[in-house]
Inverse folding.
């Protein structure tokens, strides 16, 4: 198995200062996983309060809606391979909650 | 309290091609029109992913294509010839009045799209005009904006409002704020697409959860042909990053690559006669036939370790790859370039049949009205047009039905009294929608969804049998009992995914029940519905549509609408019958 160490910049739905939260998730060595796969796994297995765009997502890099800042660069979460250690932040300043921004 | 918003003449639910075309139809007829969009107005729904946004097509008869100057290769074709083909491809379960509308107005729908700026990128078949799904959406969205249609993005539709047996609006959730809204309307058009996410393995976007079918059913409309689901045969399952991607299917239809079992052998010949296998590999029928062959190989225990079969794309000789890139230029960029690296490294993709298109849905009349006054439906969430198997284009379906539904809804709204919201019903609904926020210690919604996926994955895919279907009914009943007990870890209504999954389950469970119940009632194999325990196609006893109505708890077997043409009487083995149908289609394609 291979571990992915993820730090997420979170913001509560009621405003206030953002804070960093760390998660570790594992996938089989031979897997290829996206940033979105990692976020999905955190939601299912560790933290159902983590918010990221997924309510009308194509998951095939066509809709362009799952943008997130990965180690400082804005990427599509479905198209960006997960980094072994990565910092995930909202892509804009108009944050609704955690990684979800107002479009 | 659910806040009641400004009223509209027509509210359209869904902003794929069907919803946008319905909104245009309503606005053209003078209706004040709102589109409730689950995601972004022109970038959500199934249309965007049509043909993997590489090779979507809009279908039209050859004579019209010639008149429009698009292609002259099939100009002796007529709407009547096309009608005959669609009905045969649907194994005579199609509502033939809907097929008439389809073949007679497809040309008008295509012509107007060209006027609204759609780019044609060539031809894919005799009747198939090659386009991009995103181009269809852009052309329709631009037209709708010009006509003053309003849009409510990132909003989850939950229920229909009714007063005295008539639909009077919709209830929805603003996902960002978590606010519940009631929007009164003179008429409602449902264009919510398929119920793909009932299945773990599906080729759709995350928004396709069957909310239109379920809400209509709850409110008292009828569902028809729900057992009929097309599976795309070669959808990526592994690696996980590309799960749901249909690129291997685009390769197969273009002619590239091969399907291998765990021994590295081809296998489709085991399940299909040479003639049918040829058809499976060379024509649009491949969805049904390859799904059948692949699922049979998986069930035989010769599948890949990750549950599917291997799709292999040989990278040598180099000429083949050069040819491939010439045929499919989008492979050089974006996500497709990433997938090509997997093949370049000498590896394969694991693929398997995945839920792809729902032939069944809300039962509609040819004007797209339903059993509920004031409710209309169009596109994939409506049922009946394609019968037991869709071969022709779903994009054409959404355009044709969307236009008719929008026009009909506007006419209905003009004659209707100002919509009245039943506040007692609204209070009751609010309690149900918010219930898990007030509970503790119950099951998590994603856990129920996982169990639902186990049931659909083992009982409702390509090959079905009575024992499994009965087990599925029992499992679904248990999940129905669990749903009111659900509780949330996340107590905030702002973009709360647990809440959204609870609301989705509320729609997925009745859809799954309707599919299972219909699959049990259809004791034969026909089109995309294959029963290993009933392997015959029975034209003597089974030429009926299965109609479910929730309000009366009624299941009805209604004789198929055979107003124009009838099939031969008799009983055949499934694949033998397919051979016959194919021979008839082939025979008449030969022209002097």
């Amino acid at each position: 198995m291979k571990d992915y160490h993820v730090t997420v910049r979170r913001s509560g739905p009621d405003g206030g200062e953002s804070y960093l939260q760390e998660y570790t998730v594992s996938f089989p060595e031979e897997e290829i996983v996206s940033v979105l796969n990692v976020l999905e796994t955190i939601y299912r297995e560790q933290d159902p309060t983590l918010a990221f765009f997924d309510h009308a997502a194509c998951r095939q890099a066509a809709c362009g809606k799952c943008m997130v800042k990965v180690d400082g660069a804005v990427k599509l979460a479905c198209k960006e391979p997960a980094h072994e250690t990565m910092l995930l932040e909202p892509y804009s300043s108009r944050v609704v909650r955690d990684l979800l921004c107002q479009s | 309290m659910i806040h009641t918003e400004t009223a509209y003449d027509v509210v359209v639910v869904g902003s794929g091609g069907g919803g946008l075309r319905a909104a245009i139809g309503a606005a053209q007829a003078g209706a004040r029109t709102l589109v409730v969009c689950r995601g972004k107005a022109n970038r959500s729904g199934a249309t965007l992913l049509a043909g993997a946004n590489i090779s979507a097509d809009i279908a039209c008869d050859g004579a019209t294509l010639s008149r429009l100057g698009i292609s002259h290769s099939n100009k002796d074709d007529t709407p009547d010839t096309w009608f005959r083909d669609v009905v045969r491809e649907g194994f005579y379960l199609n509502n033939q009045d809907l097929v008439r509308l389809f073949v007679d107005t497809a040309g008008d729908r295509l012509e107007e799209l060209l006027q609204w700026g759609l780019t044609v990128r060539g031809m894919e078949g005799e009747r198939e005009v090659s386009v991009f799904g995103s181009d269809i959406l852009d052309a329709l969205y631009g037209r709708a904006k010009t006509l003053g249609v309003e849009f409510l993005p990132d909003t989850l539709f939950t229920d229909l409002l009714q007063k005295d047996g008539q639909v009077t609006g919709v209830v929805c959730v603003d996902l960002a704020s978590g606010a519940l809204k009631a929007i009164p309307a003179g008429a409602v058009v449902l264009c919510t697409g398929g119920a793909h996410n009932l299945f773990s393995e599906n080729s759709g976007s995350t928004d396709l959860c069957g909310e239109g079918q379920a809400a209509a059913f709850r409110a008292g409309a009828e569902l028809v042909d729900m057992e009929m689901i097309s599976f795309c045969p070669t959808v990526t399952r592994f690696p996980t990053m590309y799960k749901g991607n249909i690129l291997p299917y685009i390769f197969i239809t273009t002619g590239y690559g091969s399907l291998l079992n765990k021994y590295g052998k081809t296998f489709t010949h085991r399940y299909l006669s040479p003639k049918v296998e040829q058809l499976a590999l060379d024509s649009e029928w491949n969805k049904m036939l390859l799904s059948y062959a692949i699922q049979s190989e998986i069930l035989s225990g010769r599948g890949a370790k990750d549950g599917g079969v291997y799709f292999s794309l040989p990278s040598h000789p180099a000429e083949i790859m050069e040819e491939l890139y010439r045929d499919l230029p989008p492979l050089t960029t974006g996500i497709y370039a990433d997938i090509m690296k997997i093949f370049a490294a000498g590896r394969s993709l694991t693929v398997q049949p995945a839920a792809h298109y729902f032939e069944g849905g809300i039962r509609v009349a040819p004007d797209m009205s339903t059993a509920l006054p004031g409710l209309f439906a169009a596109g994939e969430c409506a049922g009946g047009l394609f019968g037991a198997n869709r071969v022709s284009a779903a994009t054409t379906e959404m355009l044709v039905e969307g236009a008719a539904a929008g026009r009909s809804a506007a006419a209905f709204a003009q004659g209707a009294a100002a919509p009245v919201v039943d506040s007692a019903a609204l209070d009751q609904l609010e309690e149900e929608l918010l219930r898990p926020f007030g509970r503790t210690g119950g099951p998590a919604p994603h856990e129920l969804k996982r169990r639902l996926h186990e049931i659909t994955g083992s009982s409702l895919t390509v090959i079905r049998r009575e024992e499994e279907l009965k087990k599925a009914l029992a499992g679904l009943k248990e999940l129905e009992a669990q749903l009111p007990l659900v509780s949330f870890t996340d107590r905030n209504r702002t973009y709360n995914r647990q809440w959204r999954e609870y609301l989705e389950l509320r729609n997925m469970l009745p859809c799954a029940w309707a599919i299972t119940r219909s699959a049990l009632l259809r004791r034969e194999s026909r089109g995309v519905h294959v029963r290993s325990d009933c392997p015959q196609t029975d034209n003597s006893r089974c030429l009926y549509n299965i109609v479910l109505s929730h309000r009366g708890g009624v299941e009805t077997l209604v004789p198929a609408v055979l107003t124009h043409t009838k099939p031969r009487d008799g009983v055949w083995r499934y694949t033998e019958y397919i051979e016959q149908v194919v021979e008839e289609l082939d025979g008449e394609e030969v022209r002097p």
